[in-house]
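Possible race condition, two jobs.
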Amino acid sequence: MTGTLEVELKLELDPGDRSRLDLIDLFGAGGATDHLVTTYFDTPGGDVRNAGCALRIRQQGEARVQTIKAAKDKATGLFTRTEWSRAVTGDRPVLDATSGPFGPALRAIGVDRLTPQIVSDFHRTHGLIDRDGGEIEWAVDEGAIRAGGSVAPLCEIELELRRGPPGLLFDLAHRIADRLPVRIAVISKAERGYRLLDQTAGSPARAEPVALDRGATVAAAFPAIAHACLRQFRLNEPLVLAAGEAEPVHQARVALRRLRTALWLHRPLFAGDPQAASLDTELRWLTARLGEVRNLDALIPRADPDLGERLRAAREQALAALQADLASARARLAMIQVVEWLTVGAWRTRPQDPALLAETIVPFAADALDALRKRLKRRGKRLAELGSKKRHKVRITAKKLRYASEFFAMLFPSPKAARRQAAFRDAVSALQDCLGELNDLDLERRVLERVGIDPGKRHLHRKRRAKLLRHAEHAYDELIAAKRFWRGPAISA
């Protein structure tokens, strides 16, 4: 059975702002409202999720529809997934010829082992819009998701493209964002439920592996990498807005740094594109604002009680400013604009080098890693003798090399490449840790002065600095000596 390709853009809205949503103003009609109860089935061990799909039965009145959705590809805002649906008469899954390519895996799991794990209970107001020769189905979902004894509120807007180019979805999204404080959504209802089950809904999100296929083109790989970075940022952003603890701030900043590195690595795709430069400016702004809080977080654990109290007061002020920035229309629109550019930007629609877009990602990745390693090797010579500015350039290059090696890691899956990856990852992490702490020491005086504290002479850290420089130089030597996992047997895997 052939599945149906679903292309939809999801926006999140704080339930407290629902009263501001004027359906007639946004969509030209009030729409019809239905009560939907959706039950997601899995084993307690998550075998369905591990198979790369979600299995649900949605009840609307007396009607029930079973849907199997491909869930392997994590998206940001724009969800493009294939699904297989059929009517059912009961509350138990039916696995047969209509189950699509996931049918064999689900039957191997065993339908008797599948039990309700997640329930989403919501009211959906929906309708259709004809725009510029295309058709969009819009829906506003309000309710809750329950799983594992926990409940999470649900308030989101879905825009599904029924006919026409994807740009129509973003035109409507901008119209909505002009009137409401919406944000790009990064997880499906099923994943929200699984995060409740796993008790990770309130945990800081670290970078996840990027699932890249060796046969993928550069045009397909770049947005996959960028979406992974955006996803990490958006998962941490609510935690920064809610409480602003140190780790979510750090991970949100890491996510934006990774995204900027992804843009830098793939810059030949959009050389001269003013929109790419504009988006990078916005990302740099947000990264810097997060950095102001993170820099204080790095100092507080090392401070004496008196200084620590003053630093915590300065952090409260910096966090309040950061939260105001994240809540601003500028920050919210920046994320929508990034997703739009990744989807329908000029680099896709009017590429300067179509042949580069069509190139497979493996040679592109290997060349990029070679270039970064060569740059690091050149900049890091006699590392312990370098001044702070040149050492900072080494740190930035090492960080880019680490991020790039993580982006492209799954392209080189052979056992020998995996062993080389582990050694390379350990070496680059050790170098980055040493250079990062040295950078914190260099920043300390400037940060203290910025918040009105006299650093005095007690913050010179001469002995600590000398020790870190020795360790950094050793880590640099280890990294340069490490075998490249992207060359030799890795390429032919």
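Job #2 (started ~2 s after job #1):
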Amino acid sequence: MVAAVSADPVPQLLRGHWLDSIGHSILVSKTTDEDQIFTAVLTPLVDHPEAKDRVLRIDRPAESRQWRCGNASLELADEQNQRLVWITEDGRRSVWSRTKEVLASSGGSDRSGEREAPEDSDKDVDRIAFPWLLNNSAPEPWLPLDVPRDILYDGARVAALLDIRQMIGARSEPQERLTHILMDHDLHPTRQGGDYLIPGVDSPLWQTLNVSETMRRSIVQRISRIPHEVLSQRVSWSGNAEVWVGRHKISCRSRDIQALNARWVPPLQDERKPLEIARLLALYSVFDNPLSNRRNGVHLGLDPEIRHHCDFELFASPLNAAVQNGRFSSKWPHVEWRFGSIGSYPSVIDYLPVNSVVCINPPFTEAYLADVMARLAELKLRFRLRIAVPILEAPWRSRLHTSLPVPQLLKTYYDATAETPADVLHPTLLWEDPRCPPRLSKLRDVRPAGEDDLDEHSGRAHGLTHDDPHMPASRARREGRDHSV
């Protein structure tokens, strides 16, 4: 009896992202309909001026039984361990490994010396809870070094965070908590490691995420892979309304794209413009809860009629600012300076002219609200404020009445993308310094607030929101009514 000949596993194994033993990131993709021809793009991991992408053909010639890549032949294809070994005629070897295997072999372990992630953690890493948010496209050849290195790094960061969203799945509370972690990261007093966007793997912030320990280890493992995937998570446009980051797709609103085009500061013909717009839209997408039917509340602002009567906006973005370029600060000025941002909170405070009329509308997260309230006395001395603060249970709540005398109650925010008002969830105070120049009209969506309004339930009693007073906050968020992040 003759045993059946098994199909060649190499074509299926080849495609995707690899790291080799020489110091390259390698992207392998098909370029023809033939199963025996692939394209490999080798990019040096070290960033230096002379670095160049190399494009090699991988095929198995008809007259040969061996797969070839450039001048090397395939010596070993280890499907189980996801490893390829290539050897040249003069005996030099190059070992290709998947990023997870490279991470494990380079010391990706916990303090006990065991592997960082147990066997079932791979299932978490590969979990797909929202398949409609993936582009499901076959990888195409591209040259990573044609893309600025900082955008490549941001692509790897965004892809990791969107992967983590998929891993967490349909659990609203951890999804919301992840948003708060990302928002507060740069102000959190116990910040450890990480970069401007993502806390380090040892940060205590990850312990505040209400997930299983197995899931937490998987999240840490996914974050640890970011440096190894810098050259594999492409940021690109697909049509005029979708940004792709690796396997993820991000739907973009035409109003947001128009706003960024209008605020572009460098020359209009700058070739980086489309990619910078895509990068910024991708960065802001990490705050969005995939279970919500609207974007994160960081994009909401006070009514433009209020902000047009201010000199500066302290918490804004190129997507929602009402003032001109050079008069708002934002989350990521190292990217957003191209769209008119002058800095970020709190460092930008030192550069604003004394006695300016400043609009302050901080994210409704623990760290940001605590920081703003701690600086409120100083801010009131230096500037004339128009400030919005939610009525929440917090250590600073008892100071609201004395710090913000005779405030108004705010009923709506403004969604710049939809160009419509948006209901608030939390009762919110709007205070305008009496020294501010008078506005031509008072808004219908504010009214004077009395001391009773500081009561926890007074916002609902006065009809400040359309939420059922017995509706849990988690349900309100799912229905998209929470304007806070």
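Residues 1-5, 101-121, 456-485 have pLDDT under 50 and may be disordered.
Logs attached separately.
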